[in-house]
Each structure stands twice: as C-alpha cells, then as structure tokens.
TrEMBL record:
SUPFAM superfamilies: Metallo-hydrolase/oxidoreductase. It holds the Pfam family Lactamase_B_3. Gene3D superfamilies: Ribonuclease Z/Hydroxyacylglutathione hydrolase-like. One of its GO terms (molecular function) is hydrolase activity. Keywords: Hydrolase. This is Zn-dependent hydrolase of the beta-lactamase fold protein.
C-alpha cells in the first residue's frame, strides 16, 4: 500500500492494483498550498469544510464519494466504517461534527481522524486500537492540540502514525508545525522522508513525516 500526503489533511492510499482512496481533498490555492496531484476511485470526506471537501479536484468519471458518512459500507472490496465525532469540545456547537474513518483493505487497517476537536468516545477508541496506520491532526487551533494528539495516539496504540493538519511553508492557517507534536513522541521511531509518499509495509512503530513541496 502506497500512502501519500498531499498537504493539510489530504492523504491518498494507492492499492496494489492501482485503486486509489483519497481522504479530505483541498483545492490548494485557498489555503496557500499546491493542488493535490492525485485522482481517486473513492473519496472520503470527514466534514464539509472548504479545506477538506474539494472533491472535484481529485474526482474521476466514476469516483465514489462518501461525505460525513457514519455507518458501515463495502465499496469495491474496501470496507469503510465511519464514526461520529466532533470538530470542537462543545459537542459540535462551534465547528460541527467530524467523521472518523476506518478503512480495511488488503489486510491493512487505516484510520483517518479528520479535523478531530475532542477525544473520541471510549466505544470508538476501543474499535480503533492497534491499526496499521493512524492519520492524526496535530496542529491545534482548529483541531486537537499536539499534546492531545499524542495522548490519543498512545491510547490507540497504532503500528504507525502519520501526523497531518500542521503548518508548512505557504499554509495560510494559524496552526502549529509538526515539531510541536514530535517533541512529545516516545516509543516510536521518527522518520522524515525525502518524498511525499511511503510504502506502509516497510514500517513498524514509526512516526512518518513525508516531505511537502
């Protein structure tokens, strides 16, 4: 499984047959970044905010799209489970709801937490423990703060971690850089990559930092 980070919260999973899943596409320009250069067979949108819902940027002719989907579904041999969570600590009253996606495919389990603003319920946490890859926002302000992200990551005990939704050069949102999260990490290797992608099967107990730009 090839995992690529396209800036902000946009992540793609390319399967062995070329089938591609994209989470939370942005349009690039509205947040000061480049447009994602990926096309999706399946798009999963965690919440309908402008910097996460630019489906047209990555869509192909027959792309399947799930927006804020809560429940279970199987699409093209990909098992999807969506869990309700919140974009804030006020039960969604400030920024709305957020969907956590668990994807199971090719004997791998991948979780994308979207713009998580508060700790998930204990029931959700129990279903997400031990995944192969945890994709987690770490920049704060609009989402959980770096220390909260690390607390959640520890409680989920994933095999690998991919931090997202943090400040990079050009981004015009007031969020923290990834180093604020990395200085809290214990028990994981930290690998800063030379490209924006990696092969998931090559890593274990690793925090992966793809290069952006």
């Amino acid at each position: 499984m090839k995992v690529a980070w396209h800036g902000h919260a946009c992540v793609s999973l390319e399967l062995s047959n070329g089938y591609t899943i994209v989470f939370d596409p942005h349009d690039g320009g509205s947040i000061g970044l480049e447009r994602p250069s990926v096309k999706a067979d399946l798009v999963l949108v965690t919440h309908d905010h402008f910097d996460h819902n630019a489906v047209e940027v990555v869509k192909k002719n027959r792309t399947r799209v799930f927006k804020e989907f809560v429940g279970e579904a199987v699409v093209d041999n990909v098992r999807i489970e969506g869990f309700e969570s919140f974009h804030d600590k006020a039960g969604g009253k400030r920024r709305g709801k957020n969907t956590i996606y668990l994807v199971e495919v090719e004997e791998r389990r991948v979780v994308h937490l979207g713009d998580l603003g508060d700790k998930p319920s204990s029931d959700v946490v129990s279903k997400l423990r031990g995944v192969d890859l945890l994709i987690i926002p770490v920049g704060g302000f609009y989402t959980i703060e770096p220390y909260e992200a690390w607390d959640i990551a520890r409680s989920l005990n994933p095999l690998n971690i991919l931090p997202i939704h943090y400040w990079v050069k050009g981004l015009n949102l007031p969020i923290k850089p990834v180093d604020e999260f990395l200085k809290l990490v214990e028990g994981f290797n930290i690998v800063k990559l030379d490209s924006n992608f990696f092969t998931l099967e090559n890593y274990e107990k690793t925090v992966l930092i793809p290069r952006y730009g």
